[in-house]
Amino acid sequence: MNKILLLFVFTIASTFFNPIFSQNNITGEVKNTNGNALEGVSIILNPNNYSTTTNASGIFNLQNIPDGNYIISISHLGYKTIKKSIEIAKKNITLSFVLEDDLLSLQTIVVTGTFDSRTSLESSTSISTLNDKAIQQVYPQGTANLLQNIPGTFTDASAGEVFTKVYTRGISASAEDDTGWYYVSLQEDGLPVSLVQHSYYSPDIFHRLDLTTKKVEAIRGGSSSITALNAPGGIYNFISQGIRNDFGGDIQLTNGFQGEGNALYKIDANIGGTLGHNWFFNAGGHYRHDDGARNTDFPFSKGGQFKFNVVKKNSNGYLKFYGKLLNDKTNRYTGVAATNWNNPTPAFGQDFKSTSLLMPSFNANIPDGRNLAQGATNSFNPSQGVHAKDLAFGFDISQNLGNNWLLKNNIKFSAKDANWQTSISNAFVSLNNPLSYFISGASFPIGQVVFRDVQSGSELARVNNSGILGGDPIQYLTQGNLPNDAIMGTSAWYKDNKADEWMNEFTLQKKLENHNITTGFALGFSDTSLFTQGSFGFVTYEPNPRMLRVTLENPGDPIIQLSDSNGISNYGGLFFVNSRAKVSQIATFINDRWKISNNVHLDLGLRYETIKHKGSKDRFAPFTQNGGLDGNDNTAYDNGILAPTGERDNFNYNYNYLSFSGGINFKIDEEAALFARFSKGNKAPELNYYFNNFSNVPINQKGEIQKINQAELGLKYNLTDFSFTSTFFWSQLKDIGIANFEFDSGNNSIFYTPIQFNTSRTIGLEWESVYAPIQNFTFRFNGIIQNPKATDWKVYDAAGSVDTSDDSITDFSGNTLSFNPKLMFNLSNEYQKDKLSAFIKWQFMGKRYGNVSNGFKLPAYSIFNAGAGYQISKNLSTDILVTNLFNSEGLANFFGANSFGANANGATSEFIAANPDTSFVVFPVLRRRALIKLNYSF
């Protein structure tokens, strides 16, 4: 009996203590081919996903590993991944690894656009990576400015950090200037920066680049149809700095000069380390003060952000808590006037390099049309630009559940606020045009009109406009006159956008012998509101505009104030939009990565998405009271305030669709792979469909779901000194809803034309290559050749008025798709030896049509960037960076004729032939910028 009891106790003890007695430790060292230790290398042991990273000496340690057979994976950005089978059957193991350079990061693990982590070479998608070195070679101008380094990505950052455009492969038609990220998802650590878009509310408003970003992964089309919320055009995922085994980080000071001596000051910092056993933290951010590349009388950008993450690792995965606080002000440049359609040159004394045409700084209080009875006002100062605030925090969980089950869940909450106080439009309005006076809101501003400088109070010009209604020119009554005999058609534009958002992505993955099946769901909920109010600003039309106080001073009559003391007129009479919406995006997906053979993997995925838009839009009418808001007949500037009538137009629509994407990867050998993919994606309307359209009419129909079909065939090749990827693609975009922004000079109203539904098709070839023929030199070449077509395209012509009796529809089918170059590339040479580094880069943008009528073509241009760096000591380094080295005057965008309310589509061949000498509005690229950076690493 005692023997049996002893045997039982021994058996239980053996079962309980055996896992402890059989634990092992693995230590190792990782270096590069030059023998230097590599810090931050990711070490993963599977099964069970044991993981760690190397310290500053390149050393790693995995503890308490049970006996068994494992595959150890050694990966680091910029180096080829090593996978090796090992058997663990003793206490301690010591390993040593040497990582080879991975010129295109084809052997680096990627997580974007895929449901399971894999190397880029094994992926059946067209994916590119920008590492921290590439990020540091870019002038800190904004998100879009960085992304132009990714092949096949068209970006327009000519307006600054916001109001940018980003798209790929001709999927561009609805990516207008005010919703420039329409088809793509801008992400931070796998979740969208913002769930919703509408006019002047794009995700770039809430995204800033600094040392907290470790790398960028970019997917062009393809699998984004099934891996992103309502973003079939691509994914740009900014991945934050991760785990450091030892305390350390970077502090970076930047001092730059741009334009005509305008300064930039910026401080970046990022630190990380341990907080205890298996606890890690990372924190950082930046603050900057930027006077801008063009001339304004106020700082163009100022503010910054703080980001952090705290990670708790366990034997089966990790839990990460992360957050961001953004509080930043930036502006955006408007266009510059040009003449000569064949060779655009600056007009009216303006300069493509330095002119901004933004209103100067002033402080005004403009009545809030929503709450006139309460006497509410909105503070307005153009120097504020767009004030973006974003408070975000979330949890990211990854846990191995055993038996080859893996659970992941990423959840984030954010509260966003974007307040715009800036100029919109800067058109030429002749003093001979009745609009110059009637836009003030006055009933009959005819006679002697006096223009005074707001700052000095001095009289600049006094005119008699009595003949303009009969077609006669104005007469100057004194020696003074206004520059160019005109005022600027511009609006004091106030917008207040808010959104509370919650998003979550959950995946459950099961690995079988030949299948890796992933299923899950993605949720996104946004409670958002929009208020827009526009007032007219009397401003001189000259390179450095001045505000004008304007009066009507007819002899024997009371003086009529056409503007207030700041030069603001027609309070709240140009725009009024007051809307709110609740948006829900719910998607479920399933994906199978099927191992057909050791070299062939088939990737099949389905995604069902349902999007609900529920909200309302206020109807409005001019506030009617004798003498306007203040009851004074002599102050005309408050006579036309738009205010809610109390009626609301509601909308409540659902959009449901099924997307598919299938890809195959054939691994030729360890260095080369072929892939092919076909995708059928969908794009539901954004909120601008309701907010921009249906002015004072019922919202009686939902928007159209755009269909995106894409096919691609690619080759990836990775050798020691040469790597390249090339992808042939075909993409089709259907059911594109197009409406133009128009101005009716007869009643001073702004409206959008009826929507037309169109189709485009683009075929092309993308490539990305790196060649290192000799030690220390590296050549990079990437770009795109494409043929974009507007296969079925119609434009509604409102003939400049709300009246539909003279309207027409023009057919431009078969024309070249606008704003898509046929050729675009980046070519660079990098040098690195010992403590010295240098680079020079050539960015080429081919010719692009400025409208679908193909009436105007933007010329090709080149921009050269250069830089050099030196490692002063182990901890201290310095870099010099020059952007647009030769001061290129390239034109990035086109806004049509230089008149208030005009648009690019109006500049047809017939219009240009009939108006060869008229001026038009273009957006030049930003001129030369230079900076010096001092970086301290510890």
Automatic annotation (TrEMBL):
Keywords noted in UniProt: Cell outer membrane, Ion transport, Iron, Iron transport, Membrane, Receptor, Signal, TonB box, Transmembrane, Transmembrane beta strand, Transport
Gene3D superfamilies: Carboxypeptidase-like, regulatory domain, TonB-dependent receptor, beta-barrel domain, TonB-dependent receptor, plug domain
Record InterPro entries: Beta-barrel_TonB (IPR000531), Beta-barrel_TonB_sf (IPR036942), CarboxyPept-like_regulatory (IPR008969), Plug_dom (IPR012910), Plug_dom_sf (IPR037066), TonB-dep_rcpt-like (IPR039426)
Main location: membrane
Gene Ontology MF annotations: siderophore uptake transmembrane transporter activity
Bilayer-spanning residue ranges: none
RNA-binding among keywords: no
Localisation: Cell outer membrane
Membrane topology designation: Multi-pass membrane protein
Protein origin, superkingdom: Bacteria
Gene Ontology cellular component annotations, sorted alphabetically: cell outer membrane
Domain TonB-dependent receptor plug: 122-235
Sequence ranges assigned to domain TonB-dependent receptor-like beta-barrel in this UniProt record: 333-885
UniProt family annotation: Belongs to the TonB-dependent receptor family.
The name this protein goes by in its record: TonB-dependent receptor
Organism: Wocania arenilitoris
Lineage, broadest ranks: Bacteria, Pseudomonadati, Bacteroidota, Flavobacteriia, Flavobacteriales
